[in-house]
């Protein structure tokens, strides 16, 4: 019997069509969460859901769901497939959207081939995964999992000074359902890797079995501005010396103890930012990630202890704001095994992988067994207009999603 496969042209055409929604006059794709461009993307997505006759529902946080169910499986917990459609600034067209549209293609393929499933299938498009306009990221799935109070999340103020809840109302996507109203039996998210592993190793599919924990902080060290030439070291209150000590302490400890942890100082601002003046203030970001609980927790303790040490020395003021602390995630072993088996059925090479980036799946994993499928990103590039995954690779991933879904939908629990 010939293996069921998705409609390649339909999937690729939808990816390209959605990829044009939100482009400015410079050709940049900017579809920030709850912007006018995001509304247009949502409207297009829902038009495709409606064409297929799916049941479309929206929760109070703007998370969009489309469910295919039939009389024989009505009332059962659905298999959920999804991701997000909001983008970063000057984005590529695959990040997030690929997972949602492949979920749609999976449902359409099953439906038009009269495949009888033992439970419904729901396609999910979560709000504000990128967190560019309304930090932090993955707010929609975090609210949906019940780990963030919705009213608090609705009060989030964006980088443009506008309130998230007001923007939801403005674009017409403040639904009536409470987050969590659809309880999935399982969740699968198909995504481009956003890293170089599959491309470098010339592999076709990543079966993502865990996801790194991630902490993000803004740290402010305050000292005293003074003359760069006439102030001796022992009288300086130099916040940049503290930054140097802080980061070197983290790097040295991580390397010496072999922690599976990475630390990144990604942004720094100095005041007054002049070549001949000792700065009075250093404001910087710290991003730390680890795939294991041991490495993650040891790294968090190291950060807090080092900050305390600097503060107790008495020369430098210390202020640290924790924007996000997300624990490492281990995905469902059965789903991962089915992903590997589906790739094997299609004669596609695969490997078990760790996700270095955060995704909605890590939040939904708190309420339902979850896992992810990766396809290669050329040169590991993402969040960039040069983001590229070949049509063949996109189709491969969607077919693995289809076969994995069929395996899960035809198991009796």
TrEMBL record:
Residues annotated to bind Zn(2+) 1: 84, 95, 191
Cofactors, names only: Zn(2+)
InterPro entries in alphabetical order: Amidase_Cbmase, Bact_exopeptidase_dim_dom, Peptidase_M20, Peptidase_M20_dimer
Gene3D superfamilies: 3.30.70.360, Zn peptidases
Family matches, as SUPFAM superfamilies: Bacterial exopeptidase dimerisation domain, Zn-dependent exopeptidases
Signal sequence region: none
Co-factor binding details: Binds 2 Zn(2+) ions per subunit.
Origin: domain of life: Bacteria
Binding site for Zn(2+) 2: 95, 130, 383
All copies of domain Peptidase M20 dimerisation, residue ranges: 214-313
Transmembrane domains' residue ranges: none
Swiss-Prot/TrEMBL keywords: Hydrolase, Metal-binding, Zinc
Entry keyword annotation includes Hydrolase: yes
GO molecular function terms listed in the Swiss-Prot or TrEMBL record: hydrolase activity, acting on carbon-nitrogen (but not peptide) bonds, in linear amidines; metal ion binding
Presence of keyword Hydrolase: yes
Family stated for the protein in its record: Belongs to the peptidase M20 family.
Name of protein: N-carbamoyl-L-amino acid hydrolase
Organism: Jeotgalicoccus saudimassiliensis
